[in-house]
Design brief:
Blueprint: H1 6-20, H2 24-37, H3 51-66, H4 72-84, H5 88-97, H6 101-110, H7 115-129, H8 139-154, H9 160-174, H10 177-184, H11 189-197, H12 204-216, H13 232-245, H14 249-264, H15 269-273, H16 278-288, H17 295-309, H18 320-328, H19 337-351, H20 353-371, H21 380-398, H22 402-411, H23 414-427, H24 458-476, H25 480-490, H26 493-503, H27 508-519, H28 528-552, H29 566-585, H30 593-745, H31 752-789, H32 794-827
Helix pairs in contact: 1-2, 1-3, 2-4, 4-7, 6-7, 6-8, 7-9, 8-9, 8-11, 9-10, 9-12, 12-13, 12-14, 13-14, 13-16, 14-17, 17-19, 18-19, 19-21, 21-24, 23-24, 23-25, 24-25, 24-26, 24-27, 26-27, 26-28, 29-30, 31-32
C-alpha cells in the first residue's frame, strides 16, 4: 500500500533538491534525513509496495553513483542500506530491480585498502547478493570475482572479511553458470581451493561456505575429500542449531543451501544417507522451535526439514508426527506458511496412507481455518503464496484415494472457496495491479507490486484462481453443491480474464489446467460469451504490447571493428602458416624469425586491445542496460497505474451507462404513469369545472336573494326606527297629558266615581302600554335574531314579517285607543 512515512517523502524531496543544487545546506539536510531513516525500526515503509518506494530506491542509486567514495554522504547511504537490507523484500528490490551489485563492486575496489569501510561494503554485498541470478557475462563479474579471490587468498582464517569474501563468491555463483565460469578462469582460484582444503580447523560457518563453493566449482571430491569429513552432516546440523539459538538467519540459511547442494550431487547423497544421528539432532532442533521463534527463522528451518524428510530414510519415521504437528501450527503465518505447508505435503508423501489417515482430521481443521479468509483481512501480496500451497495440498489429498476425496467434500463448504475467490478478484484484476484513486471514499493511490521486484502479482493470482476452479470442480464430483458453485464462479468475466491469462502462461502445468477446464465441457453455455469477451480483451492487450514493442525496438549493433587491417591479418596468417610448414619439414628458408615474432607480438597486442575494447563495451552496455531497466521499471509501474486508472474509469463508465439505462427505464415508467395521471386529472378537472359552474350559478342566485333580503331588512329597520321615534313622541305627549290631568284633577273631583273608574281603565291602559314597551324590546331582540337567521332561513323571515305586521296592527290599535283616550280627555269638560 501507499507509504505513510513522512521521513521517506522528506528524503525523496531532499535528494532531488541536492541533485539539482548540491549546496552545503541541502547536503546537511539530506544527511540528517538519512540518519533519521537509519533508525526506523519498521522496515515495511521501505518495502517495494508503492511508487513512492520506487522513487526512494532510484534516489539511493543516483546518490551512490554520484557521491565520492570518501565522502560522508556515501557512508551514511551505506549505513542506511545495511539497515534496510534486513528486510527480505528490500534486499530483493535492491538486488534485482535497482541492481546495486555493479555499483558496490566499483566501491569495493576503490576502498579495499580501508579496512572498516571495506568490511561495511562486504557486509552489504553479502546481504544483497544472496539469491542473485545472472544469465550472462557481465562486466562487473570480471572485476568483482578476481578481486574477491585475491582478497581471500591474501587473508587468513582469523580475518572477518574472509568469510564475507567467500560468501559473496558463493552467492554470485550459486545460480549463475557465467559467474562460475568466470571464477574458474580467475588465475588465483586454485590457490583459493587449496586454502579451503586446509580449513579443517576453521569454524563451522567458514567450513560450510567453503564446502558449498567447492560444490559449485564441481571439483573432484575424491581428490578433495578433506573438505567433506565424516562429520560433515554434524557440522551442518551444528551450524543450523547454532543459528537457531543465536537467531542468525544467515547461518541457518547457509545450512539449508549446503544440504541442498549436497543432495543435488549423486556422489555425495550417500554422505547424507549414511548419517545415523538424524532423530536426536532433528528432535533438538524441534525443541528450539517454539512460539517465540522468529517466523523468518522458522521458514528456513522448515526448508531444512523438508530437504531431510525427502531423503525418505527409515530412521526418520518416528519424527514425522512431531514435525507434522510443529508445521501445522505455522501454516497460517504469512512469512513461513508456504514452507510449513510444503513440509506437511512432503511428510504426507513420505508417510503414505498409513500416516495420512490418523492425521487427516487435524490437518483439514487447520486448512479450513486458514482458508476461511475475510475479504477485509485478505492481503493478496502476503496471503497468495499460502493459498496456492494449500490448494496444491488439497489436490494431493484428493488424489490419494476416493475415501479422502469424499471426506474433503463433506468437511469443506462451497462458501469457503467462493469467499476466497471473491477476495482474490477484489484485490486486483489480472491485467493490472491494484490501484485506487485518492478520493473521500477511497484510500490513497496504491500500486501493489510483487516481492522480488516491481512486477505485478497478477500471474500468481491468476494461477490461484484456476486452482480454485479446479479444486471446486474436483469436489463437485462428490457433492452437487460444488457443481452449482462452480457454475456461478465460471460465469464471471473477471474469472475468465484470469483463465485467459493462464492460457498464455509458459508453465506447462498451468496451461494443462486451463485446457482441462475449457475442454471438458465444464463451461456453461451462458458463460461462453463471457469467455469470448475475455479472450478479445486479452488479444487486444497483446496487440497493444506488440505495437509498443515495435515502436520501441531498436536495431542491435555489434562491435566488428578490428584495430588491424584485414590485409595485415591475412598476411600474418600466411607467414605463420609458411613458418609452421617449414618447421614441420625441417626446412630453413632463412626467413627472419624476429620479424615473425614481431608479427606475433603485434597480433597479441591487437587481440589484447580488442579484448579490452570489448570489455569496455560490455561495461558500458551493462550500465546502459541497468539504467534502461530502471527506466523501464518506472515506466511499467506508471503504465500499471495508468492502466489501473483506465480500467477503473471504464468500470465507472460501464456502471454509469447501466445507471443511465436504469434511469431511462425509470423515466419511461414515470412518463407513462404521468400520462395516465394527466388523463385522469383532466377528467377530474372537467367534472370539477362542471360542479364549480353549477355552484357558481347557485351562489349567484343566493347572492341576489340575499341582496333583496338585505334591502327589505334595511327598509324594515328604517320603518322600525320611525316607529320608535313615533313611540317616543307619543310618550312625550302622554307625559304632557298626565301633567294636564294633574291640573284638572281638582276640576274632576265632582266626578270622582267616574274618574276612579276611568283611572282604573287608564292604569290598565298604562300597564298595557308598558307591556307593549316590553313587547317592543322583545321585538327588537327578535328582530336581531331575525337578522341573524334571515340569511339561512327564508321561512323564518316571512314569519317575522308577519309578526311585525301583526304588531304594527296592534300598535295602530293601541294608537287608536290612545287617540280615543286623548279625544276623550279633550272632550271632558273642565270643572
Amino acid at each position: 500500500m501507499e507509504s505513510t512515512s513522512p521521513q521517506v517523502k522528506s528524503f525523496i524531496t531532499f535528494a532531488y533538491e541536492y541533485q539539482q543544487r548540491p549546496t552545503e545546506k541541502n547536503l546537511t539536510q539530506l544527511q540528517r534525513q538519512i540518519q533519521i531513516l537509519s533508525v526506523i525500526s519498521d522496515l515495511s515503509v521501505f518495502e517495494p509496495s508503492c511508487m513512492e518506494a520506487l522513487e526512494f530506491y532510484v534516489c539511493l542509486e543516483r546518490l551512490l553513483i554520484n557521491a565520492e567514495h570518501k565522502s560522508s554522504l556515501m557512508w551514511k547511504i551505506l549505513t542506511l542500506l545495511l539497515h534496510i537490507s534486513h528486510s527480505e523484500k528490500v534486499r530483493v528490490a535492491l538486488r534485482d530491480d535497482i541492481q546495486l551489485m555493479p555499483i558496490l563492486t566499483e566501491l569495493l575496489i576503490a576502498v579495499h585498502h580501508l579496512k572498516d569501510k571495506n568490511l561495511k561494503v562486504l557486509q552489504l554485498m553479502q546481504e544483497i547478493s544472496y539469491g542473485i541470478e545472472i544469465d550472462r557475462f557481465e562486466a562487473w563479474l570480471m572485476r568483482l570475482l578476481p578481486h574477491l579471490v585475491s582478497m581471500a587468498v591474501e587473508g587468513s582464517m582469523t580475518d572477518e572479511s574472509l568469510y564475507l569474501d567467500i560468501a559473496i563468491i558463493v552467492n554470485v555463483c550459486r545460480k549463475s553458470v557465467p559467474a562460475t565460469s568466470c571464477l574458474r578462469n580467475t588465475h588465483d582460484h586454485k590457490a583459493l581451493v587449496k586454502m579451503m582444503v586446509d580449513f579443517k580447523s576453521a569454524d563451522a560457518q567458514l567450513r560450510l561456505i567453503s564446502m558449498e563453493l567447492m560444490l559449485l566449482l564441481n571439483l573432484d571430491f575424491k581428490k578433495h575429500h578433506k573438505i567433506l569429513l565424516p562429520d560433515a552432516v554434524d557440522t551442518l546440523l551444528d551450524a543450523a542449531q547454532d543459528g537457531l539459538i543465536r537467531q542468525s538467519s544467515q547461518l541457518l540459511r547457509l545450512s539449508v543451501d549446503v544440504i541442498k547442494d549436497v543432495s543435488s550431487e549423486a556422489c555425495l547423497q550417500e554422505v547424507l544417507r549414511s548419517y545415523e544421528n538424524y532423530p536426536d539432532r532433528i528432535q533438538a532442533l524441534l525443541g528450539h522451535l517454539n512460539s517465540e521463534t522468529s517466523p523468518s527463522l522458522a521458514n528456513i528451518l522448515f526448508q531444512l526439514f523438508n530437504h531431510i524428510i525427502t531423503l525418505e530414510l527409515p530412521q526418520l519415521s518416528p519424527l514425522l508426527h512431531d514435525t507434522f504437528q510443529k508445521a501445522l501450527t505455522w501454516i497460517n503465518n504469512r512469512i513461513c506458511g508456504v514452507s510449513a505447508i510444503t513440509l506437511v505435503q512432503s511428510i504426507l508423501s513420505v508417510g503414505g496412507q498409513s500416516f495420512v489417515s490418523p492425521h487427516v482430521d487435524d490437518l483439514l481443521t487447520h486448512i479450513k481455518d486458514v482458508l476461511q479468509i475475510e475479504d477485509t483481512d485478505f492481503d493478496a501480496e502476503k496471503d497468495i503464496g499460502i493459498v496456492a500451497a494449500l490448494l496444491c495440498l488439497l489436490e494431493t489429498l484428493c488424489s490419494l484415494d476416493p475415501t479422502m476425496h469424499f471426506k474433503l467434500s463433506m468437511m469443506l463448504s462451497p462458501s469457503i472457496f467462493s469467499t476466497l475467490l471473491q477476495a482474490l478478484l477484489n484485490s486486483s484484476s489480472p491485467n493490472q495491479s491494484t490501484i485506487s484513486e485518492s478520493s473521500p471514499t477511497q484510500e490513497d493511490t496504491v500500486l501493489k507490486l510483487k516481492i522480488g521486484g516491481f512486477a505485478s502479482t497478477s500471474n500468481l493470482k491468476s494461477e490461484v484462481v484456476v486452482r480454485i476452479l479446479t479444486m471446486v470442480k474436483m469436489l463437485g464430483a462428490q457433492k452437487a453443491e460444488f457443481v452449482l458453485e462452480y457454475s456461478q464462479m465460471i460465469n464471471s468475466k473477471a474469472v475468465m480474464e484470469h483463465i485467459i491469462r493462464c492460457d498464455r502462461s509458459t508453465k506447462p502445468e498451468v496451461v494443462v489446467r486451463v485446457a482441462t477446464l475449457l475442454s471438458e465441457g465444464t463451461v456453461p453455455n451462458e458463460s461462453i460469451h463471457i469467455l469470448i469477451e475475455a479472450k478479445q480483451d486479452a488479444n487486444r492487450l497483446l496487440e497493444l504490447e506488440a505495437t509498443s514493442q515495435e515502436k520501441n525496438s531498436f536495431g542491435r549493433s555489434y562491435l566488428t571493428h578490428s584495430p588491424t587491417n584485414p590485409e595485415t591479418d591475412e598476411r600474418i596468417e600466411k607467414i605463420i602458416t609458411t613458418l609452421r610448414k617449414s618447421t614441420e619439414h625441417g626446412e630453413d628458408e632463412g626467413g627472419a624469425v624476429s620479424a615473425v615474432m614481431d608479427l606475433y607480438e603485434y597480433k597479441i597486442a591487437a587481440r589484447f586491445y580488442t579484448e579490452k575494447m570489448l570489455q569496455n563495451a560490455l561495461e558500458a552496455a551493462d550500465t546502459r542496460i541497468r539504467q534502461t531497466n530502471i527506466a523501464l521499471m518506472q515506466a511499467r509501474a506508471e503504465s500499471c497505474r495508468v492502466q489501473s486508472l483506465l480500467k477503473m474509469w471504464e468500470e465507472r463508465v460501464h456502471e454509469e451507462r447501466k445507471g443511465k439505462e436504469n434511469w431511462q427505464n425509470k423515466v419511461k415508467i414515470i412518463e407513462n404513469d404521468s400520462k395516465q395521471m394527466r388523463e385522469k386529472l383532466v377528467k377530474e378537472k372537467t367534472a370539477i369545472s362542471r360542479q364549480v359552474a353549477e355552484l357558481r350559478k347557485d351562489l349567484n342566485s343566493l347572492n341576489n336573494d340575499l341582496q333583496g333580503k338585505e334591502e327589505e331588512i334595511k327598509k324594515l329597520n328604517k320603518a322600525l326606527a320611525d316607529a320608535n321615534a313615533e313611540v317616543r313622541n307619543q310618550n312625550k305627549i302622554i307625559k304632557e297629558e298626565q301633567d294636564n290631568g294633574k291640573k284638572v284633577r281638582e276640576q274632576v273631583q265632582k266626578l270622582e266615581d267616574d274618574q276612579r273608574k276611568r283611572k282604573r281603565e287608564f292604569e290598565d291602559l298604562t300597564k298595557e302600554s308598558q307591556k307593549l314597551e316590553k313587547q317592543q324590546v322583545q321585538l327588537k331582540k327578535e328582530n336581531s335574531e331575525q337578522e341573524l337567521l334571515i340569511r339561512s332561513h327564508e321561512q323564518s323571515l316571512t314569519e317575522k314579517e308577519a309578526q311585525i305586521e301583526e304588531m304594527t296592527k296592534n300598535y295602530m290599535a293601541l294608537k287608536r285607543i290612545q287617540d280615543m283616550i286623548h279625544n276623550m280627555s279633550a272632550a271632558t269638560p273642565k270643572v
